[in-house]
């Protein structure tokens, strides 16, 4: 067992133990507080809704434990179990006349598709057992399989040219290939952000312009006050797959869209929709999307530099179960194991995200009505069965949004200052 194997196994063990420990804490904490609604929500959330949220959270967290173990098993199977080495050897034997780049692309796409198939049972269980049991699933087996087929086609259509370009640079661009791959990846990310609203998202959902009326006029006035220009305001048929409600911005430059789930519009009044939109505009005005993009690009550059060092170290791929080194092998192995070592960044990223949510709430309170944002959030907590009593440690590690009591208390305090 070489050093890489030892470090890998230790990192895997620590990752599983930490995440499992946090999940068990979360389950126990939510169960302890299941019997009564927190005081701050006692007049807004019925006990049966609170208990449904607790049961839903516990069920999802238990499922997360199963997914965690399954992911660890698959990771070991791909690496030390010889799964990737076998696939690589098998496809090389079938493509003896192909150049290394084409072989590498075929191996990477095959491994990605196989990984999706291996995750399919868990995805189906989550959709048709858990979401169905709690009244959220509205998808059908036919729609589920259609989505899967579209995802596979997108993976091939986008993944093949991206993998081909990346492997060509890794093999032929010299010592500083990682800079060129970073530029390639950065351009790809920006292209996808631009293309997603009009080219990719419509493959899965239908989007229609928000009807003319009082709500649209109010939204347009809010956008004008906030100095936000978009390519349109759209309603998405989220109810086709789920009862959960949401709203989001998508796109960059002049290709930005505001999207409301139809389920969200059905559950909120006009004042509440305006407050939710003001919160989302807060992310835009406080440049959170730009900051997130820059951070992602910087981290991807650091990751590619580390990969460039590991690519020239045979112990890396050998210690992960692949004897014969290649550009596609080290790339695939790096993508597999990197999450084990970046796990330490999760609580930092979560803390930054929660800070951004507070800033967006502040912006909404200044440009809309804080009381309406509070009522909208409470409705969304209730309708989405979001727990009001997360474990503090679990929340600090995983949650991108502040715990409900903290967020509502902060907004309530602002009401006295407005």
Characterization of this structure:
The chain has 418 residues and is mainly α. The chain has helices at residues 3-32, 47-78, 83-94, 100-133, 141-172, 177-200, 214-226, 262-267, 270-285, 288-311, 314-319, 327-342, 346-367, 370-383, 392-398, 404-415, and strands at 207-209, 233-236, 247-250, 257-261. The protein has a four-stranded mixed β-sheet with strand order 1-2-4-3. A hairpin with a 6-residue loop joins strand 3 (247-250) and strand 4. Helix 1 packs across helix 15 (392-398), helix 9 packs across helix 13 (346-367) and helix 13 runs parallel beside helix 16 (404-415). The chain starts with a helix and ends with a helix.
What's a quick, concise take on this entry?
The protein has 418 residues and is mainly alpha-helical. 72% of the residues lie in helices and 4% in strands.
Terminal CA distance reads 64 Å
Number of strands: 4
Beta-strand content bin:
under 5%
Order of helices and strands: HHHHHHEHEEEHHHHHHHHH
Structural class, judged by helices and strands? Answer: mainly alpha
Oligomeric category: single chain
Mean pLDDT: 91
| Helix content class | over 70%
Strand neighbour order, sheet with most strands = 1-2-4-3
Layout of strands and helices, then pairs:
Blueprint: H1 3-32, H2 47-78, H3 83-94, H4 100-133, H5 141-172, H6 177-200, E1 207-209, H7 214-226, E2 233-236, E3 247-250, E4 257-261, H8 262-267, H9 270-285, H10 288-311, H11 314-319, H12 327-342, H13 346-367, H14 370-383, H15 392-398, H16 404-415
Parallel strand pairs: 2-4
Antiparallel strand pairs: 1-2, 3-4
Helix pairs in contact: 1-2, 1-15, 3-4, 4-5, 4-12, 5-6, 6-10, 7-9, 9-13, 9-14, 13-16, 14-16
